[in-house]
Amino acid sequence: MDVLPGYFATPWKDVFDCAECIGTISVLLTSLEHFTNETNLQSVATQHQNKQWLWQGKTTYPSYAHNAVGGIVVAGGYKSTTFDSFRNSVAPIELLKSYEHQVYRNFSSTAQAVIDSTAELMGLDTWLSISGRQPEIVNGPSGLSRTLPTLIQQIMTDFHLELTSVDRTSKDGGSRIIKTISDSLLEYLKEQGLDDAERLFCIVALLRTVKMALCVARGTDTAMLRDVLVHDVQVYLA
């Protein structure tokens, strides 16, 4: 799903579970620790560049999206940093505010909160578009540019029971189970033939997917409106 300006009003609200999304985010943040440090994984208070892009009515999508042609990079300047997994320097991964904010279960539905969440997704799309053009991903052994959407769906299916069992964060007693699931996920990706660069890329793509699902789950349900449009004959006559 592309990241678009505006509220998350969809007919898929009931497809996603907020608790599972938060649990999955907790696991993925732990997985990211295997590939990142304080320099290339940054907590930021706000993302002005992404918000400006949003206010201009523009959209983003990652490099592995259908017909993405490299994805969308939000216009602006980026500091280069290094990852052990990539030969070339790329932009750092930016996540909003703090670990506590990332796994907070009580969501504010204010316009500002929606803008912040959308801007963060646009930032992840930018990182996935920049890193997705690196030779480690373009020419990687797993061909993630073509196979990643299917792999993400398979991971969410195979790890569904484990991810739904995460009801605490690493800061309130859940670190042991979260680390166990994280280690299992990383080993699973290795068994799928992914090298370190591809595993990092996949973890960030998973994070982007789950954050999008969480926004949909917290958004407005338009299923009833969809049903009216599908079944009401007067809509077709009009």
Write the layout of secondary structure elements.
Blueprint: E1 9-10, H1 18-32, E2 41-44, H2 48-55, E3 93-96, H3 99-102, H4 111-131, H5 135-138, H6 144-158, H7 160-164, H8 175-191, H9 196-218, E4 220-221, H10 223-231, H11 233-237
Parallel strand pairs: 1-4, 2-3
Main structural class: mainly alpha
N-end to C-end Cα span: 29 Å
Number of helices: 11
Query: pLDDT average, as an integer?
Result: 90
Form type: globular
Strand content: 5-15%
Rg (CA only):
18 Å
* Order of the strands making up the biggest sheet: 1-4
* Percent helix range: 40-55%
DSSP strand tally:
4
Q: How is the main sheet built? A: 2 strands, parallel
Instruction: Detail the poorly predicted runs.
Output: none
Order of helices and strands: EHEHEHHHHHHHEHH
Structure, briefly:
This protein has helices at 18-32, 48-55, 99-102, 111-131, 135-138, 144-158, 160-164, 175-191, 196-218, 223-231, 233-237; strands spanning 9-10, 41-44, 93-96, 220-221. By secondary structure, it is mainly alpha-helical. Strand 2, helix 2 and strand 3 form a beta-alpha-beta unit.
